[in-house]
Amino acid sequence: MTQENPRQYYERLEAETLSPYATLAKNTRGRVTPIEPCQIRTEFIRDRDRILHSKSFRRLKHKTQVFLSPQGDHYRTRLTHTLEVSQIARTISRALRLNEDLTEAISMGHDLGHTPFGHSGEDVLNALLPGGFEHNEQSLRVVEKLENEGEGLNLTFEVRDGILNHKKSGNPATLEGSVVSLADRIAYINHDIDDAIRAGVLHESDLPEACVRVLGDSHGKRINTMILDVVEQSAGKPIVKMSERMFEQFDALRDFMFDNVYKNPKAKSEEEKAKRVINELFEYYLAHINLLTGEYAKYLEIDGKERAVADYIAGMTDNYAVAEYMRIFVPKSWMDLTT
C-alpha cells in the first residue's frame, strides 16, 4: 500500500473533520491552466502562498486604508487591513468548521486591486475609465492577468470567485467566500473607528448608544460580539449571516462612520489633492502610452489604452503616485537639472 503524502493526509483530514458545507480542496473546480499537484500543500494553500509572495501583495503596505499619509506608525494601511480581515475570517471559518486555507487565500487577495489613496483613487478611475472601475474586479484582474509579469497567478476557481465577490453586493459561490465578505466589513468598520479616535476625528463617547449597548464599548468587544453572533447564527447551516438585531446595529454603525468619518472634512482634507494626482497621471499616461511596458502593455491591444493606464495607476502605492506626479509636473531647480 502506497503511503499518503502530506497533501493527501490534509485532504483526508478535511474530508473527515470539516462541515458538510465546507469547500474541500480535493473538490476544487480547478485552475484555468492545470498544474501538477504539490506533494505537501493543498490547492488552496498553494493559492495563499502565490498571493503572499506576489508584488501586488507587498505594495499594500504603502496604500491608504482611510487616512491619507497619516503621521504615526499605528494607523492601518491596506496591508494591515488585509491581515485583520484574514484573522477575523479564519476565526469564523474555524468555528464553523469551514476551510481555513481557502478563507485565508481569499482574504489575502481580496484587496490587491485597490488604488493608491483608497476609495478616493477608486472614485477617480471609476469616472475616467469607460465601463467604470471597481476594486474587486481589479483584484481579480491582478491575479488573472497582471501579476507574475503579465502571466497571472493561475489561482483556483474558488479563490478567484471569493476575491471577485467579497463586496457586500457580491454572491460568493462558497461559504468561505461569504465569511471573507462579512469579515471585511467587520474589520474595516472597527479598525476605522480605532484610527478615527487616534486621529482625534472621533471620541468613543460619540458612538451611537444603541450600537455600543448591543455591540460593545471597545474595539475588541465589538469584534468579539460580531464574531460570536455570526457563529451562533450560521453553525450547522448552509449560510453565513448575522442575527437581525446585530446586523441592524452593525449597519447603523456603518452609517455613522460614513457621516462622521468617511465624509468628514478633517479626515478627508487632502482628498481633493489626491484625486488631482490620479486624474492628471491618467491623462499624462494616456497621452504617453509608450511609457507603459511589461505587464501593463501586454494587454494594450486587447483591452485598450484606458484600461492599460488604469492598470498601471491602480498598481501604484501612494508614495509612488506622488513621486511620479512630482517628477512629471513639478519643475526642478537648475541645480537639480545639472546633477
Commentary on this structure:
The protein has helices at 6-17, 43-52, 55-59, 78-96, 100-109, 118-128, 135-150, 157-164, 175-199, 209-215, 219-234, 244-262, 271-287, 295-298, 300-303, 305-314, 318-329, 334-338. The protein is mostly helical and 339 residues long. It has one domain (6-338): Orthogonal Bundle (Hypothetical protein af1432), CATH 1.10.3210.10. The longest helix has 25 residues, at 175-199.
List keywords for this structure.
339 residues; mainly alpha; Hypothetical protein af1432
State the gist of this model.
By secondary structure, the protein is mainly α. The chain has 18 helices and no strands.
